[in-house]
């Protein structure tokens, strides 16, 4: 199993664009084979902090996720929407 937590701080002027991009990614990713969980959440305390939680059946399922057009769109557009680089924590469990 592969678990990924990603933390984002969007630019205030780009917040609606950021939310749209991540919402599209989340909706599509949930239908992928091997996706156990895919959540896009807003922090209750810090209103400018967002968290993406991914849980995949295997590393292979996650690798396949990276090939979809909506993921590539996310990858190409995300950096310009953020105040700073996202923090990503990954864990491979058995």
TrEMBL record:
Keyword set, alphabetical order? Monooxygenase, Oxidoreductase
- Tell me if Oxidoreductase is a UniProt keyword of this record: yes
Record's InterPro entries? ABM_dom (IPR007138), AI-2_Isomerase_LsrG (IPR050744), Dimeric_a/b-barrel (IPR011008)
**Gene Ontology MF, one:** monooxygenase activity
Q: Record's Pfam families? A: ABM
Q: Which residues form a coiled coil?
A: none
> Which ranges carry the ABM domain?
2-90
The entry's protein name is Antibiotic biosynthesis monooxygenase
What organism does the record attribute this protein to? Ligilactobacillus ubinensis
């Amino acid at each position: 199993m592969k678990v990924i937590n990603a933390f984002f701080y969007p630019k205030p002027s780009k917040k609606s664009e950021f939310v749209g991009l991540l919402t599209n990614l989340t909706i599509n990713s949930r239908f992928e084979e091997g996706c156990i969980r895919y959540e896009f959440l807003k922090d209750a305390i810090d209103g400018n902090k967002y968290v993406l939680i991914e849980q995949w059946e295997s590393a292979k399922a996650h690798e396949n996720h990276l090939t979809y057009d909506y993921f590539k769109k996310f990858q190409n557009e995300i950096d310009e929407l953020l105040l700073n680089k996202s923090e990503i924590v990954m864990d491979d469990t058995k």
